[in-house]
Every structure is written in C-alpha cells, then in structure tokens.
Specification:
The chain has 25 helices and 19 strands. The chain is of the alpha/beta class. It has a seven-stranded parallel beta sheet with strand order 9-10-8-11-12-7-13. Strands 1-2-3-4-5-6 form a six-stranded mixed beta sheet, sandwiched between helices. Strands 17-18-16-19 form a four-stranded parallel beta sheet, sandwiched between helices. Helix 2 runs parallel beside helix 6.
Length: 703
C-alpha cells in the first residue's frame, strides 16, 4: 500500500494517480524521475482548475504563468498549498534541466504533492477527509512496476466536467484541513532558501560552519555580536572564489515580515567586514520575500531572486569604482540639441540622488532614441552601467532602435531577441527585445538571465498598460529603469508616475510638442477634413441608387443564406461601424486616392507625390487600397504603393526602403506597423483612413 492509493477509487483521476504513484515509488531510488512526475501531476491538476473555472489556457502558456495567475491562486487561496505548488514546480524544473535532485528534495516533492492533490480534492468536496501522509509507506528500494490502466477520456476535461459548479465557486473558502506531518517551519523555510540559491547557481555546503570559497555556506560563526558571548551564527554566507564574503543572508519565519531580520543581518555584515576587510551585500528573507541592501547607497529594496556570484562580484566592484556622475558631456554626432543634453543631465543627476527609476517626456519626432543612446554612453563612460536592455512593443521598433544604437555606439556589442531567432549573443552589452518576447524569457522556470543581468532597462512608450501586462519584467530584473514617452506630462497616468517612483507626478525631464514647434525642431501639421456620407453615416437603403440597391440586396441574400436558422431575419441598413470591417466601398477608396494625388504635398517641383502613409483599418482594406491605386495609376508601376502590415512577409524590408529618400515605395498603406515610433523624415502626407479616438495616439501618429 502507498499513500496515493486512495486515488484508485476515483476513476476520473487515473492519469493523475499514475503520475503521483510514479513520484512516490521513485522518490528514494530515482529522485530526478520522482520530481519530474510530481511536476507533471501538478501540471495536470493546474489545467483541471483552469478548465473547471472556464478559463481558456493560452496555447504557449508556461506552468509558471499558470500557477501565478489569478485564476489558480484565487482558487487555491491557501499560502501553505501555494508553497507546495512552487516547491513541486521548482524541484521538477531542477530535475529536468540539471538532474541534481536529492532524495530529500524528492521526499518533499512527494509530501507536497500528496497534500496539494488532497487539499484540492477536499476543497472541491471530492473527498470528505484526507489521512495524514505516512512516511512509513514510502518505498526504499526498487519497486516492481505497477500497471495502471487509463482510458483515453480520463483527461483533466473529463474530471472537471464531473465537478458541480457550486463546488468550484465555493472552493476558495473551503479550508483544506490537511496535516503537514512533523516538518518544522524552520526546515521548510531552509529548503526554500536552499532551492532559490541553487536556482541562482550557488552550490551549497551541507556541513554547518564549514567555509568553502565560491560556495554558499550555512550557520557561519561570527564574532563581535552585541550579546553576552559576542558570537552569532549567520544563516548563510555566500563566498567569492577568493574566500571573501560576497553576501550574508538572514532568514526569518515565513509567517513574519522579513524586515524583522534586517538589523540582525546588518550586524552579521559588520562582523564579517571587521574580519575580512570587505562588507558583504545584505539579504534578509522569510523564504518567499527577499530584501537586499547592496552597499551602493540605495535604500533596501525587494528582489525577485538572489543574485548570482557574477552579479555580486559586479556589485562589489562597483562599490570601489562608482562615483557620482560628473562627466555629462555628450557626443555631438549623437545628440546636439539643447533639450536632449538637458534631459541626459537631469536623468544623471536624478540617478546621483540614488533614485532608481525616471521618466523622460519628449514629443514624438524630437529624438527620444538618440537621447537614450547618449544616456547609455554617458552612464557607460562614468562606470555606472555595463549591460542595457531596450524594450519596445513592436518588432519593427526594436529593430529600428538596434540599428541606430549599432551605428552610433559601434563599440558596444548588441543582440536582438525575438521568437524566431536562435542566434542570440548572451554576453552582448546592449540587448533589444519586445515586451512580449522578454516576458516569455522571464515567465519560465529555466530563466536564461539572472536578476542582475542588466544594469539599465529603457522602456519605449512607458505607460500603465506596459507595467500591468508586462510588470513581471520589471519585478524580476534588479536594474535602473528609464521610461520614454511622447504622452504630454499632464496626460501621463498617475499610476505610471507611481510605478516609476515619481510620486510628485512630474517627469524627470520633459520637452513637449508646442515647445518643439516654437524651437522649429518640429513643423506644425495642417489638418484637412475629408469624409463621405457612407463612412460617416453608413448605408441606408432608401437613399441608394437602383444599382446600389441591387448590391445591398445581394448582401441581404448572403445574410439570409448564412443566418442562424432560429433567428428571424429582415432587410437592414449597414451601420457606419461596419464599413471597411464588413462592407468595403470601392468608390470611397477611389475618391480618397484621387484627392491625395491631386492635393497632397509634392516633391520634384510638384511632379511627384511626397512620401505618404495611409493608415488603414485592417489588412483587407489595405490590400484593396493598393489594388485600387494600381488600377487608377498604373503608370507609377507596382512598387510605388505598397501594403505594409503583419500579414506581409519581410515587411521590415519594405519599411526600411520606405524610410529612404528617392527609394520606392512612395506610398505605404499601413495597418498598425507605421502608427508610432517609425522614423520616416521625408513623410509629407498622412491619410487617416480609420478612426483614431485617442488624442494621444493621434499626436504620436503625426509625430
């Protein structure tokens, strides 16, 4: 008999039982296999919860994302069970990638899995009670394989379908009522900290009090504590290869605020500094929250994870080499305008004041990217940063920024991350990525970057939604953070200022549209309102010509054939919202193109239309615009007017060509890709062939 045998009595849980049984059978003889099967069982259970809650699981969702999502955490609603979840996930990941799971690790995975599975079943009222975990039942030798028959329909879906909706809704309020054996709170905390250190690449010394260079050592005796014996025992000391302490860790109960251990950790650091002549970085933690005092003058802050040895060595080096930024000089070939230089100096002085986050507000077209490049250059020369991460919301913006950085900072190595490229330089000084790509790097168990990998993160178009949807990026990396935005400072959301620690509601520096016009760095736009009755009011049958009525009647016939059989159908007008989404009007497109070619700004003594962007509503509309242009103006050839959107292969090549003077295409019909952040200095005409309801977005598109 084994602990998980009770699951045999629930046929819908046969697949889960198989995984749990393998975990229990192998926890002693094959710890890695046991941990992997525990993780697979967790994944099965998590998917069942999502299905029961009626929440669709994203196609490429990682287990980490699912377990930290509100759908799952709100359902579990129990801190002890969530500790079990993360232990199983972390140790399973360790087994899959490093194969260094110990018997003790596997035992705790088995115990945690038993209580997690039982706890969920108790919450769902599938079980009335759960027997305490019995260690005496655990096999300690190779077991004869047990054959467990599962049916094809025994999936998480099949199990979820049998749980009453009322039980699912009530689950968060049901106390699981499970026993955690005689495992002490201190032992649980210690195991989590050990695991986090291993994730950060630290090898642990098992013998208490033993000091080994380059490793994480436990229960290290220190002299000089303010007590009767003058001695103390640091929970962990992380040593460099030279035998000098890089960091000290004080651990407190998981039920306590880790700040309780702050002063004690600082006293240990004092003792170690007196002995070794170097002050270690100070951590204090309760096994879940980690706080750090790095000795660089910053107030304490919370971290996502421990630093690697390389991270800590860099921090220690910075203590000796970093001084307040005093060289504010910028290279004129990068930024030569007064407001750009002022913005760079303002940000540097802000950093000198030990602030870690700032915001630059600069009107679109006034050189945010160049200002960012000069800022990186100044911070590098003053030995404040080594590695930079540049984030933007679209691949085209990331690639554009990378090209400009490469051109203006040729001595800094660069790499661009994207889902399709495997050729990534992990040691590049400047890394470029979309938010979505980087969140995939962060929201995974096997993280390729440490928390201290980047010294500076630059975020293009900083606003609330970035911090909401992609906030894990900024919680994970322990870095300086500079936000760039073209949104006028009085329209920047209050929460954006708060997230960038600008409590006063003012950016670090700003240069806005009106000032740029006055300084003649930007030119004002001249708006020409065009429209058609169809676009503005829709299509009304009674107002159509006989020929047009026939066309609309064909639409009605189509709708009658394709309607729901149970629905009543009657002839109807077409609402304005349906134009260019459901109904496509060629006549309006032709009139727009003719108006553009006759009245748009021209070059070459008025012989050719200037570079033009037509903002279309969707790809089908964009394609139709290009087709109609080629019908109306075949003399210009097939490359004069091109569709540029995400449906076009190698669209970035078209963007690159469009941005060059005297290079076709001359007219770009864009869906989203050219809306913001693209540099086309020669653009003279913008045609808004779609509604733009946001004034901020409208100004960005003009810029």
């Amino acid at each position: 008999m084994l602990n998980f045998d009770y699951l045999k009595n629930i046929p819908e849980l046969a697949p889960l039982h198989k995984l749990c049984d393998l975990c229990e059978q192998r926890q002693y003889t094959e710890p890695d296999s046991a941990a992997i099967n525990a993780r697979k069982a967790l994944e099965w259970l998590v998917k069942a919860v999502y299905i029961m809650k009626g929440v669709e699981i994203p196609e490429r969702a990682k287990l980490y994302e699912l377990t930290v999502g509100d759908t799952f955490t709100d359902f579990i609603a129990d801190p002890e069970l969530m500790k079990a979840v993360h232990w199983i996930r972390k140790v399973g990941n360790l087994a899959a990638h490093d194969g260094k799971v110990t018997r003790s690790d596997a035992f705790y995975s088995t115990l945690n899995l038993y209580n997690l599975v039982g706890g969920v079943l108790l919450k769902l009222r599938v079980l009335d009670s759960l027997a305490p975990f019995d260690k005496t039942l655990l096999p300690t030798c190779q077991q004869r394989p047990r054959i467990i028959v599962t049916r094809a329909d025994q999936t998480p879906e099949a199990f979820a379908a049998g749980i009453p909706a009322a039980n699912v809704s009530a689950a968060p309020t049901v106390a699981p009522g499970i026993s955690w054996d005689d495992i002490s709170e201190a032992d649980t905390r210690r195991r989590f900290i050990d695991l986090m250190l291993r994730e950060a690449g630290w090898e642990l010394v098992e013998t208490e009090g033993e000091v080994v260079g380059g490793k994480a050592c436990v229960e290290i005796e220190v002299d000089g504590m303010p007590n009767t014996t003058g001695k103390g025992y640091a929970d962990y000391v992380l040593y460099g290869d030279n035998g000098k302490p890089l960091a000290v860790i004080e651990a407190k109960r998981t039920s306590k605020d880790p700040v309780v251990g702050k002063h004690q950790a600082e006293l240990y650091a004092d003792c170690l500094e007196r002995k070794h002549g170097v002050r270690p970085v100070v951590y204090y933690t309760n096994g879940f929250e980690i706080h750090v005092i790095d000795g660089l003058g910053y107030p304490e802050r919370q971290l996502f994870a421990f630093h690697t040895k390389k991270d800590l060595e860099l921090i220690m080096s910075r203590r000796n080499s970093r001084r307040d930024i005093s060289d504010f000089s910028v290279k004129e070939e990068i930024t030569d305008r007064y407001y750009q230089k002022r913005a760079i100096k303002s940000m540097c002085e802000w950093f000198n004041g030990r602030h870690r986050r700032g915001l630059l507000v600069m009107a679109t077209g006034t050189g945010k990217t160049r200002t960012a490049i000069s800022l990186v250059d100044v911070l590098q020369r003053n030995n404040w940063i080594k590695n930079t991460l540049f984030l933007a919301d679209r691949t085209s913006l990331v690639n554009q920024a990378a090209r400009i950085f490469q051109k203006l900072l040729p001595n800094s190595t660069t790499t661009v991350l994207n889902d399709k490229t495997t050729e990534v330089d992990p040691n590049a000084r400047i890394t470029f990525s979309t938010y979505q790509t980087m969140i995939n790097y962060v929201n995974t168990d096997q993280k390729p970057y440490s928390v201290g990998r980047f010294d500076l993160i630059i975020i293009d178009e900083a606003h609330r939604s970035v911090f909401g949807k992609f906030g894990d990026i900024f919680r994970y990396f322990d870095s300086l953070l500079v936000g760039l935005t073209a949104t006028p400072r009085d329209q920047v959301d209050k929460s954006t200022y708060e997230l960038l620690h600008l409590e006063g509601g003012e950016p670090t520096d700003y240069y806005e549209y009106e000032t740029a016009i006055k300084d003649k760095y930007l030119v004002p736009y001249e708006g020409k309102i065009r429209g058609s009755k169809v676009v503005n009011e829709g299509i009304k049958y009674d107002e159509l010509s006989d020929e047009e009525k026939q066309q609309l009647e064909q639409v009605w016939e189509y709708e009658q054939v394709n309607k729901d059989p149970d629905e009543e159908w009657k002839p109807r007008n077409i609402r304005e919202q349906e134009i260019y989404k459901y109904i496509y009007n060629v006549d309006t497109i032709d009139k727009m193109l003719q108006d553009l070619m006759e009245n748009g700004l021209k070059i070459h003594s008025g012989e050719m239309i200037g570079k033009t962007i037509i903002f279309a509503m969707n790809s089908k509309t964009a394609k139709l615009i290009v087709e109609r242009f080629n019908v109306l103006y075949p003399e210009y050839g097939p490359k004069f007017c091109e569709q540029i959107d995400y449906s076009i292969n190698y669209s970035q090549d078209l963007i690159d060509k469009f941005s060059l003077r005297d290079t076709l295409p001359q007219i770009a019909v864009s869906v989203d890709m050219l809306d913001t952040g693209i540099d086309v200095p020669d653009a003279l005409n913008l045609v808004f062939f779609k509604r733009v309801r946001s004034r901020i977005k409208f100004m960005q598109m003009i810029g």
